[in-house]
Write the structure tokens for this entry.
Amino acid sequence: MRPLLIATKNAHKTAEIAAMLGVEWEVTDLNAYPEIPASEETGETFADNAAIKALAASRLFGGLVLADDSGLEVDALGGAPGVRSARYAGPSATDADNRAKLLRELGSFRGKERAARFRCVLVLAEDGDQRAIFDGAVEGVIIGAERGEGGFGYDALFVPEGHDETFAQLPASIKNTLSHRARAMEKARGFFISAAASGRDAV
Ligand code: ITT
């Protein structure tokens, strides 16, 4: 198995990515490496922030590093919360705080005005160099009250296009085929196949 460090403290992201990768990869995240500090997300785009996180961790970890920067864009809010999705209700906001703020901000909007999408950018890095970048998005709508217990973040408020249930109601196996993260990981498939093969050759 080849080691892959996910440059995140968000164990939900790690679990989703590990479920999408094959058995070739031994996935860990920053929770297992307290000596690698989480980076400050100072970028203005998902790509900037994913690169900041991947490059910083790859300077301290001897192997392939993957960073995921992701978030929710809501049309009625001009694309907010966007890159600030994790900090929408403040610097130490919980997921529940962020969902409550989103519902308040969307209080007067109805129907198509509540259109939204999740975006994900994945950056792969090794030894302080960026190796690849992939992105994915999923369109949907923000409903008026939370539904479901699964997932994380804004999942209980987001119904993906073509479905009636939120990401928090749908089984993880379904979310993991149609989410923004799944779509970016699908684009990264070829990269992972060759990286796993080159790891085997090197042994
Ligand atoms: P790291 O920076 O350590 O990876 P984070 O959770 O802070 O963890 P981001 O900065 O990328 O990650 O912020 C993404 C936020 O967007 C996340 O906290 C959620 O609120 C939301 N988000 C991203 N993907 C999501 C998903 O699949 N389901 C629900 N919410 C999601």
Remarks:
- The helical segments are 11-20, 46-58, 95-105, 172-178, 180-187, 189-202.
- The two ends are 11 Å apart (CA to CA).
- The first strand starts at residue 2 and ends at 6.
- The domain at 2-197 is CATH 3.90.950.10 (Maf protein).
